[in-house]
Amino acid sequence: MDRPTALVPLHHVALGARGPEDVVADPHGRVLTGVADGRILRLHHLGDPLAVRAEPLADTGGRPLGLELLPDGGLLVCDAERGLLRVDTEHGTVRVLADSVAGQRLRFCSNAVALPDGTVYFTVSSRRHPLDRWIGDIVEHTGTGRLLRLAPEGREPEVVLDGLQFANGLAASADGSFLVIAETGSCRLTRFPLTGPRAGRAEPFADLPGMPDNLWREGTGGPVWVALASPRVPPLGLVHRAPPPVRRAAARTAVRAPYRPSRTIGVVAVDDRGRTVHHLTRRGSGFRMVTSVCATGDHLVLGSLWESGVAVCARPADR
């Protein structure tokens, strides 16, 4: 991997609400995000700190995480409490698309992607730990993350891939032949072919310098932007190799202990061959725990499960 370059902050935009966990840019340069109180917001004029405005669009009644804009202007929302939702961004109505799988209630729905035929794939990060104890799953290394598929007009999703280490961000390749899955607990991206002789069999795609969270594809020909929620933590590797009782005990301790995110933040962009296009980092950042990144105009916009606003940074020059 090339040496990282500087992630250059420009300004911070306070939202008056905690945890804009995912950020996605629409075709008009606006950015959508969901915050801890359940609201979906649309942010205007992020490049101008004096003109920026947050427009409420809807309230999911839960905790929105991953977002996916649809061609008709609708919005898919992975809600940690309510499941997979569809939000009408014009009228603010919220419809539940899926809240159970195999007779069990969905918990910790994390990220979604929609294919042109209407099929929706989405991730469940953990079946053991809820969102407010996410660190327990990272430490215990449960491997209970899943990739699910909801057919067009389907009523209940099916599990197409199990055993993922905190399944998180999701993106489709430019040609729609495979998905890219972020496994936060293993600091890697995984490729899941949808067509061809290896369809349905997961394979390595890219190792990363930190823990990936949300993914966002920049248009059909652009790279996949990867938010790194944390740098690699070497002691975690030792815990992950320990027997299950030791990992469970360590997870219980981690859940109870005060958590303070690293002040080293980063984002990566990769192409459809898994090659790094950009690797940007900043040490000593006042904005912590970057869980999402999207590009709009000359800017990168960072979201965070931890912060009460978004950060606007300079976009790097294309290579």
TrEMBL record:
- Indicate the segments forming the Strictosidine synthase conserved region domain, all copies: 117-192
Q: Which Gene Ontology molecular function entries are recorded, alphabetically?
A: hydrolase activity
Q: Which InterPro entries match?
A: 6-blade_b-propeller_TolB-like (IPR011042), Strictosidine_synth_cons-reg (IPR018119)
What Gene3D superfamilies does UniProt report for this protein, alphabetically?
TolB, C-terminal domain (2.120.10.30)
| Pfam entry (one) | Str_synth
Alphabetical keyword list: Glycoprotein, Phosphoprotein
Give the UniProt family note. Answer: Belongs to the strictosidine synthase family.
Q: What is this protein called?
A: Strictosidine synthase
Record the organism.
Streptomyces capoamus
